[in-house]
């Protein structure tokens, strides 16, 4: 019996914010599905460690230091990938930050920093990669939104604005790029158990769990599965959606 084909066999997949959390779980999943996982993040040591974990497990990965707010940095990475591999098949816009505060307390710096990473960073990376996908006549782009981008959330004016914006860009690009063979979708995670929750009090975590009808937090690997589906040809007729993966928070 032959082994079943892997869903992302030999695809070159760029993942931003991939050294930790959902991004790293996605890189692992993609590697397991046969892809070359391109791990992009801000810290060289963390990037190197993430690549080593995947390679040591028998997968394929390369690492690049990349700041999604720095267009010159992005252009250098994209140029290096095109010179080395000749194509970029998948872009996962996963990088994101939070700087929470109520409206009356939020500083301009907090607002601008989140917009620069979560919204303009998605624009920067997508605009840098798309010309190469257009030449190839195919590609899949998946961007991280959030349930906060669907319903808002107390104390997250800046974050909610960016995640609403990601959905708007996704739907616009799906219209512009779909006829060219490029699918564009977004994922809206609920509350996921990553390092970012480490400082949250236990009672708050319990409340987050209770908002899901599965009565638990999501796991990074569960979101990685969603990214893998939308990146793969299994979702070949899906374009322009914002897929909620939250355990049923909106029910």
- Summed up, the helix count is 8
- Whole-number count of domains: 1
Strand content: 15-25%
The average pLDDT value, as a whole number, equals: 94
The CATH superfamily label reads NAD(P)-binding Rossmann-like Domain
Radius of gyration: 17 Å
List keywords for this structure.
251 residues, alpha/beta, Rossmann fold, 7-stranded parallel beta sheet, 8 helices, 16% strand, globular
Word description of this protein:
A seven-stranded parallel beta sheet has the order 3-2-1-4-5-6-7, sandwiched between helices. It starts with 11 loop residues before the first strand and ends in a 6-residue tail after the last strand. The chain contains eight helices and seven strands. The chain has a single domain, classed as 3-Layer(aba) Sandwich (Rossmann fold), CATH 3.40.50.720. The protein has 251 residues and is of the alpha/beta class. α3 runs parallel beside α4 (108-136) and α4 (108-136) runs parallel beside α6. The protein is globular and about 50 Å long. Helices cover 46% and strands 16% of the residues.
What is the fold's blueprint, element by element?
Layout: E1 12-16, H1 21-32, E2 36-41, H2 44-56, E3 60-65, H3 71-85, E4 90-93, H4 108-136, E5 139-144, H5 148-151, H6 157-177, E6 182-189, H7 202-211, H8 220-231, E7 242-245
Parallel strand pairs: 1-2, 1-4, 2-3, 4-5, 5-6, 6-7
């Amino acid at each position: 019996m032959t082994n079943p084909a892997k869903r992302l066999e030999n695809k070159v997949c760029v993942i931003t914010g991939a050294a930790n959390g959902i991004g790293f779980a996605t890189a692992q999943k993609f590697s397991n599905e046969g892809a070359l996982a391109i791990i992009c993040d801000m810290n060289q040591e963390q990037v190197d460690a993430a690549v080593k974990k995947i390679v040591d497990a028998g997968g394929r990965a390369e690492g690049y230091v990349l700041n999604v707010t720095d267009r010159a940095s992005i252009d250098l990475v994209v140029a290096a990938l095109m010179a080395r591999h000749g194509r970029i098949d998948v872009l996962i816009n996963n990088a994101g930050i939070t700087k929470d505060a109520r409206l009356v307390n939020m500083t301009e710096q907090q607002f601008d920093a989140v917009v620069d990473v979560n919204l303009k960073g998605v624009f920067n990376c997508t605009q840098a990669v798309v010309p190469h996908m257009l030449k190839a006549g195919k590609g899949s782009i998946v961007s991280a939104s959030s349930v906060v981008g669907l319903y808002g959330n107390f104390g997250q004016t800046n974050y909610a604005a960016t995640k609403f914006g990601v959905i708007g860009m996704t739907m616009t690009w799906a219209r512009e790029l779909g006829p060219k063979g490029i699918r564009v979708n977004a994922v809206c995670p609920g509350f996921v158990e990553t390092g970012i929750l480490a400082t949250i009090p236990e009672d708050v975590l319990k409340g987050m769990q209770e908002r899901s009808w599965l009565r638990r937090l999501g796991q990074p690997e569960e979101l990685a599965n969603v990214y893998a589906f939308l990146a793969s040809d299994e979702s070949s007729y899906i374009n322009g959606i914002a897929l909620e993966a939250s355990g049923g928070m909106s029910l």
